[in-house]
Write a structure and sequence with these properties.
The mean pLDDT is 90. The protein is mainly α. 42% of the residues are buried. The protein contains 26 helices and five strands. The chain has helices spanning 2-13, 17-30, 35-48, 51-63, 71-83, 87-100, 104-116, 120-137, 146-158, 162-175, 179-188, 195-207, 215-233, 238-255, 260-278, 303-310, 324-334, 340-359, 376-382, 395-403, 417-437, 449-454, 456-467, 475-479, 488-491, 509-525; strands at 292-297, 316-318, 364-367, 387-392, 444-448.
Length: 541
């Protein structure tokens, strides 16, 4: 039995998560009543991000003997519930786990939930306790708890305590160089990173090449170094900065399994199902969604900036990037093709309940998951009283901004200008489809990022009028706005136009435009074609 468990854990450590899951399934099948087999299978499902299955496996495995529910059960159950945005139930499980064992992961998960609820003081309390625990373990363990340090940065940022984070990270680096702490410090303010630490980062790249156990260990070490150095050199040496961004993105590209064809097929299936089954659907629940706002668009197109505008009052709660709408639709339409009656019940019971919990005493909640643009028509059918703001930005500026962020899993196409060209052509196609097939557009407002930053007061008023927000806009609330995204610190700045008409990475531009135009031809064959050759009014040149 120990050999089977070690085999699964070794497969996970080496990045072979799908193979690990298959081995864990076989082990569980042979030992269905063994709690170690239950735990192993749940852990394997966590690695591939199937949290619904984690919950199912744990409930089934422990229901036979509820008295055996231990730390592993409550910790993994709490974590899985958090990932599907069942926050209240997640907190209950994690608090029990916390009483059973002093563990930094439990406190980190709780901190992340309280951050989502915008209870920053409680989040700070949890993450400080987690830091105390790992300090007892020692600095050699820091890479194992990298998410903890990311959360420290985010929570202190929300509390306007960046100086505290900078001091902590600087002291860690003075004592023992750590690639992830280096990256996080550069992400806060690269100007505060001294040359000695930068020298350590560059030396680390050169001297550790032969020491990596496998490609996963190499990847985990070099990518934060490349992106940290790229950010450091942005204001000092543009050429060197671009080279480091290229190196970092190439590392991610070489280890990623992103398949643009599968993404394309998902869009095709969404279009076909909508026309075939859902376009004429009217479920009669005309009031659903009156408390819900959505902001959609390509990542890095200005969605976070608009969220900061929408929530700069005492009526609208910032839900940030919620996964529920997208996950429920994908699990119940694209995979099972259920009737919209069935989906409507599931969507309303889960999505409205989850967002109502977060909304609390606020009148409205905004969901700023950019990729909900894929399901605009379905969201309107399911929540007919909801309001949707759709954001557009110059595609080349968007691509550059994406390329300069260290996305590993959540935006997999961002590491390649070719893949970004394909993605933005697909983004264009699905939005053109909704333009043609969504009958009621009165609940959709289109805004261009460039127009917003050029005429801010006008668009702020236009947004509030469209959403029906009966509250005074408060610039001080926008200044205090926090969202745990790559845009957080940029959004806190005074609204500016410096991100318009970017001039970087010119050696990649033809690759990007060629890919975009090539993918457009695919959609033309599907009878989806823009009225002009531009991209929603942006010239492609």
């Amino acid at each position: 039995m120990k050999n089977e468990i070690s085999n699964v854990l070794n497969l996970i450590e080496s990045g072979e998560t799908n193979k690990a899951l298959q081995v864990a399934k076989l082990f569980y099948k042979k030992n269905v009543n063994n709690l170690d087999a239950v735990k192993l299978l749940a852990y394997a499902y966590i690695q591939i991000g199937n949290f619904e299955k984690v919950i199912e496996v744990l409930k089934r495995g422990y229901d036979r003997n509820k008295d055996s529910r231990d730390f592993d059960y409550f910790n993994n159950m709490g974590y899985a519930l958090f990932q599907i945005e069942e926050y209240d139930e997640s907190i209950s499980n994690l608090e029990i786990a916390s009483k059973l064992e002093e563990n930094p992961n439990v406190k980190t998960s709780l901190a992340e939930i309280f951050l989502k609820k915008r209870d920053f003081k409680k989040a700070k309390e949890m993450i400080s306790t987690a830091l105390e625990i790992i300090n007892k373990i020692g600095s050699k363990s820091f890479n194992k708890y990298v998410n903890l340090f990311l959360l420290i940065s985010e929570i202190n940022g929300a509390l306007k305590n960046d100086d505290e984070t900078i001091l902590l990270f600087s002291n860690i680096l003075e004592e023992r160089f750590n690639e992830n702490i280096f990256f996080l410090l550069c992400n806060i303010n690269p100007k505060l990173v001294n040359e000695r630490i930068v020298g350590s980062a560059e030396e680390y790249l050169l001297t550790n090449e032969s020491k990596y156990k496998n490609k996963i260990e190499r990847f985990n070490c070099v990518t934060p170094l490349y992106f940290g150095l790229a950010m450091y050199y942005q204001s000092k040496d543009k050429k060197k900065s671009e080279e480091y961004f290229d190196f970092g993105n190439k590392e991610i590209f070489n280890t990623s399994r992103y398949n643009s064809y599968q993404y394309q097929e998902r869009i095709v299936k969404t279009m076909e199902l909508y026309q075939k089954k859902y376009k004429s659907f009217d479920e009669g629940y005309r009031e659903h969604g009156e408390k819900n706002f959505f902001i959609v668009g390509s990542p890095r197109s200005g969605t976070t900036l608009i969220e900061s505008v929408v929530t700069a009052n005492d009526k609208v709660f910032s839900g940030g990037e919620l996964k529920s709408a997208k996950d429920i639709i994908e699990r119940n339409i694209l995979s099972k093709e259920q009737s919209l009656n069935e989906l409507s019940h599931k969507f309303i019971s889960k999505y409205i309940r989850r967002t109502s919990y977060l909304r609390g005493n606020y009148e409205y909640i905004v969901d700023k998951m950019p990729e909900n643009f894929l399901y605009i028509g379905l969201i309107q059918k399911l929540l007919p009283r909801s309001k949707i703001i759709r954001v557009f930005r110059n595609p080349w500026d968007t691509a550059i901004s994406l390329y300069k962020q260290r996305y590993v899993l959540n935006v997999p196409y961002s590491v390649s200008f070719f893949n970004m060209g394909i993605f933005l052509a697909n983004f264009e196609a699905i939005n053109l489809f909704w333009d043609a097939h969504v009958e009621e557009k009165k609940n959709i407002l289109d805004i261009k990022y460039e127009d917003l930053v050029s005429n801010y007061s006008y668009y702020q008023e236009k947004i509030y009028k469209f959403l029906g927000i009966k509250a005074k806009y408060d610039e001080s609330k926008r200044d205090e706005f926090f969202s745990p995204t790559a845009s957080t610190r940029q959004v806190k700045e005074v609204v500016h136009q410096r991100s318009i008409d970017k001039k970087e990475f010119s050696h990649h531009k033809s690759e990007f435009l060629d890919a975009l135009l090539m993918q457009r031809e695919y959609w033309v064959k599907k009878d989806i074609k823009a009225k002009s050759n531009d991209f929603f009014g942006y010239p492609l040149k």
